[in-house]
Amino acid sequence: MKKFFNYINSEVLVKAGNLNTVNISLRIFSGILITKFIAIYIGPYGMALIGNLRNFLSAIQSLAISGLYKGVVKFISQCKDDAVELSRTLSTVFYLGFFSSVLLAFICYYNAELINDLIFSSSYNYTYIIETLAIVLPFYALNMFVFSIMNGFSKHKILLIINILGQIVGLLVTLLLIYDQNIDGALIAVSITPALNLLITIVGVAFRKNLMSSIRITQVNFSILNKLSPYMIMALVSAIAIPIVMIIIRNYIISEIGIKSAGYWTAMTRVSDYYLMFFNSLMALYILPRFSEINGKREFRKEVFSFYKTIMPVFLVLLLIIYFSRSLLISLFFTEDFRPVEDLFGFQILGDIARVLSMVIAYQFLAKKMFAHFIILEIFLFVIMYVSSIYLIDEFGLKGAVMGHCLSYFMYFGIILLLFSSSLFGVLAEDGMDDY
């Protein structure tokens, strides 16, 4: 236990204090408050519809920026002192993001009815929500572009302040719209909130005016895209497949069991998102940078098992507390209408444990640029999640959705263990020659 706290103090808190602890805490607080408002003013059926719109928005936003964010941050940080290469990178990414977001905006706007039927079904007509989303989509892409530039230049404090302001404005607007317009207000808020962060764009451009002169269409270079393409593909596979599978499963629950049951499942996934948010931040702050430095199996094995021995016990205790406090959590986060969610905690938490265990090892795919392995395994996960969830929903009702989640991630974890079995459990060379 002492080792855990030393690890947190020396490795995590220092970095998190300079990056996004406040932002993440505010995101969780905002999410809980918004969830409570949805539960009070709209109810389970609204939770289901909002869940589908959120998933669709997540996928379409990733497409709008072509999965470029992480790759852009990395490349800008590497070439920020090379004016020519920086100009090529900025120009290529800007025009790619601009054209892809505008194209997607047109597609969404002129196919709003079709998209409405896909994510809401023909029983609900929220075509104007899709049209609104299409209009604000290019602004989101521009925000993310400027955000990635500033992140690449390590302007973390400015980004943190802007993010906090954006979170506060978004929270106030969302609560006001839900209170005044109920389900329509909540859906409008989901659509326009990303565009409210236009402040990021304004401040970013004002802060780095000299960068605007570097963005020229004549500097677009397709070799930059070749370098960024692995990051783009990996980001797009993860960012698009999961939301689409979630929409399909939720729509299946709506058609087979009912929209209120879909709302209960969405509520459970939101609770899961809250406690996983801190863990994901920890992974990004420490695990990925640390794995990037590792050159041999011995170090990799030591790091993985060290994490399992120090962080996982604390995470498991946290999940046990959440499980035994689930009745209280439902009262705090939702309303009595959401009491059936209590039966979903067990399998959801078990699945999240397998998810976290596998994520620690799977970060090696990113750190060592094992792109093909990552994409194949992610596609396998999504297919298994869809097939198992549909089958188990037919067999066990709503609980089958969380059982499918649990089964999918345990299978995912098992395959990852097989892929890295020699690194984690094999005999290592005594002379230290165990490099990858």
Average the pLDDT over all residues and give the rounded result.
80
Q: Spell out the helices and strands N to C.
A: HHHHHHHHHHHHHHHHHH
N- to C-terminal distance = 32 Å
Percent of residues in helical segments? over 70%
What structural class results from the helix and strand content? mainly alpha
Alpha-carbon Rg, integer: 22 Å
* Largest sheet features: none
Low-confidence parts, pLDDT < 50 over ≥5 residues? 7-19
Shape: globular
Tally of separate helices: 18
SS elements, strand count = 0
Residues in β-strands, percent: under 5%
Structure keywords:
436 residues; mainly alpha; 84% helix
What's the SSE blueprint?
Layout: H1 2-18, H2 21-41, H3 44-64, H4 69-79, H5 83-110, H6 112-119, H7 127-152, H8 156-196, H9 198-207, H10 209-212, H11 222-256, H12 259-293, H13 297-324, H14 326-333, H15 345-367, H16 371-396, H17 399-419, H18 421-425
Helix pairs in contact: 1-12, 2-8, 2-12, 3-5, 3-7, 3-8, 3-11, 3-12, 4-5, 4-7, 4-11, 5-7, 6-7, 7-8, 7-9, 8-9, 11-12, 11-16, 12-15, 13-15, 15-17, 16-17
